[in-house]
UniProtKB/TrEMBL annotation:
It comes from the Bacteria. It comes from Novipirellula rosea. PANTHER family: GLYCOSYLTRANSFERASE (PTHR43685), GLYCOSYLTRANSFERASE 2-LIKE DOMAIN-CONTAINING PROTEIN (PTHR43685:SF2). Coiled coil: none annotated. This is Glycosyltransferase 2-like domain-containing protein.
Length: 356
C-alpha cells in the first residue's frame, strides 16, 4: 500500500504529536531554533528514506529525529516491509507528516531503500535506518554548507547502545581506490549524504546485496564522484543492540559464517568485472591486504606477547610481500607495539590514576 502526502506547508514543530510521557531530550523535544522564516523554495530539496521491519521499539525516535529537523524542503519516505509489531500504529500517528509511506513486503533492507530511491526527488539523499537517529541541525548544515563541487558531504557518527560506551566514528580518507585497496580509511553510512542524481547515474542500490550494499554503493559512487567534504559535526547516531545485523554477524565465532565477510567477496567479484583496470587491480590488491590487516589487529590486541617480538615478526613477514604489506597501517602497528615497550610501567600506572 502506497500513501503519498504533501507536507511542505506543515509546521512540523508545532503540529507533530507531543512526545509520550516521561520522554525528554532529543528527539522527543526539539532543540532547533530558526533564526528567520524560510520558504522551501529557498532551500535545496533533501530526501531521507527510512527502511523498517519490526523495529517498533525504535521507529518513533527515528521518525521524530528526522521530522524535528524542522527542515522546510524535506521529502521523508518510510518503507515498511510488512511489520507485525507496533510499527503500523507509529506510522499512523505520524502519517500526515510523512511525504510517502510504503507498507508492503520487500526483499530486505536494500530492496526497501531502492524503493525509496526510485521515488526520491531531492537534490541530496541518504537513508536513516529505523533504529538510528539524525542529530539536531544536520539537514540545515548540509543545505547551507554543501558547495556545488562537493559530491559527498560527510558527518561524524556517534555509536551508542544500552551496553555500549558511546564513541565517535569519523569518515576518513574516502576514495574508491583506498576502499578497494584496503588502505586506512573509515566510513559510517548514516553520516554520508549523496547527490541523488549521482547515485542514480552510478547504478543505485544493488538489491541483490543484503549486508555490504552500502560499501558497494560508496565505491561505485566515488569512482565517478570523488570530491568529499568532511564536516567536524556529529550528524547521526548509530544504535547497536542485540538484533542489529552488525552485532549478530560479528558475534559469530566462525568468521566463515559472517555474512558481511561472505558478501564482500561477491562484491569484489562484481566490481572487478565492471570497473576500469586501475580500480580492478586495486581490488585484487585489497583481497591480499584484508587478511594482512586482520592479522595486524590480532598482533596489536595480543597483550600477553612481547611487543618487541611482535613488531619484529611483523617486520620480517612484511619483507616477504612488500607490495602488499608496506603500508601506513603496518608502520603504525609497529610503532604502537614499540611504544608499549619503551614506555615505563610507572607512567602507565600514573596515566590511569585519578587526580584529585
Amino acid at each position: 500500500m502506497l500513501a503519498t502526502l504533501t507536507t511542505s506547508s506543515v509546521d512540523v514543530i508545532s503540529t507533530v504529536n507531543l512526545p509520550p510521557t516521561n520522554h525528554h531530550g532529543w528527539p522527543w523535544e526539539s532543540s532547533i531554533e530558526r533564526k528567520a522564516p524560510l520558504h522551501a523554495s529557498d532551500l535545496p530539496r533533501i530526501t531521507v528514506v527510512t527502511p523498517s521491519y519490526n523495529q517498533g521499539d525504535f521507529l518513533e525516535q527515528t521518525i521524530r529525529s528526522v521530522l524535528l529537523q524542522d527542515y522546510p524542503n524535506l521529502q521523508y519516505i518510510v518503507v515498511d516491509g510488512g511489520s507485525t509489531d507496533q510499527s503500523h500504529a507509529i506510522l499512523d500517528k505520524y502519517n500526515e507528516h510523512l511525504s510517502v509511506v510504503i507498507r508492503e513486503p520487500d526483499e530486505g533492507q536494500s530492496d526497501a531503500i531502492a524503493k525509496g530511491l526510485a521515488l526520491a526527488d531531492g537534490e541530496f539523499f541518504n537513508w536513516i535506518n529505523s533504529d538510528d537517529l539524525l542529530m539536531p541541525g544536520t539537514l540545515w548544515e548540509l543545505a547551507s554548507r554543501c558547495r556545488p563541487k562537493v559530491d559527498l558531504y560527510t558527518f561524524s557518527v556517534e555509536v551508542f547502545g544500552d551496553d555500549v560506551k558511546s564513541y565517535l566514528m569519523h569518515n576518513h580518507n574516502l576514495s574508491a581506490t583506498a576502499m578497494l585497496r584496503a588502505d586506512r580509511y573509515s566510513f559510517s553510512q548514516p553520516g554520508l549524504w549523496f547527490r541523488t542524481k549521482y547515485i542514480q547515474d552510478c547504478g543505485g542500490i544493488d538489491r541483490n546485496l543484503n549486508y555490504g550494499f552500502d560499501w558497494d554503493l560508496l565505491v561505485r559512487y566515488l569512482a565517478d564522484n570523488p570530491n568529499v567534504h568532511y564536516s567536524t559535526s556529529v550528524g547521526a547516531r548509530f544504535r547497536l543492540h542485540a538484533e542489529s545485523k552488525t552485532v549478530v554477524e560479528f558475534a559469530k565465532q566462525d568468521e566463515a559464517a559472517n555474512r558481511f565477510l561472505q558478501e564482500s567477496e561477491r562484491i569484489r567479484d562484481k566490481l572487478e568485472a565492471s570497473l576500469g583496470t586501475s580500480l580492478a587491480n586495486a581490488s585484487r590488491l585489497g583481497r591480499l591486504r584484508v587478511p594482512w590487516n586482520d592479522w595486524l589487529v590480532e598482533k596489536l590486541d595480543d597483550r600477553d606477547s612481547s611487543p618487541v617480538v611482535a613488531a619484529s615478526t611483523i617486520g620480517w613477514r612484511a619483507i616477504k610481500q612488500p607490495h602488499v604489506t608496506f603500508t601506513w597501517r603496518t608502520a603504525g602497528t609497529i610503532l604502537r607495539l614499540l611504544s608499549r615497550y619503551v614506555r615505563p610501567k610507572s607512567s602507565i600506572g600514573q596515566r590511569n590514576t585519578p587526580r584529585h
